[in-house]
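Record 1 of the preview.
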Amino acid sequence: MVQDLFAVAVGLGLAAACGFRVFVPLLAMGLAVRTGHLAVSPGFSWVGGDAALIAFGVATVLEIAGYYVPWVDNLLDTVASPTAVIAGMLAAASVMTHMDPWLRWTVAVLAGGGVATAVQSVPGGSSPA
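->
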């Protein structure tokens, strides 16, 4: 029971991070899986694979480039919301290792996707006038 609650908390934290920066948490997860520091649910070992790490690395570089290249920033803003929700759901589901798959995906979609959406929808970097 405590292990499940901890897994949900970690999953929601990762989902929130995906709402803030979409690809950086996925890259960190992939590296943690690759080095053996993070155990993932069955079927999610691909997160630590070569193809996934390359894709997450390239996407992270693009995300960083968005700070410096205006058209990259506009492109990222266009795809950020739906991508953040999907990334949040995947990140949350991947760390809920000992849960029934039905419950894992229900929590991941509702809570993980919801948290990622909430964080993504909050305007960042704006200061009060």
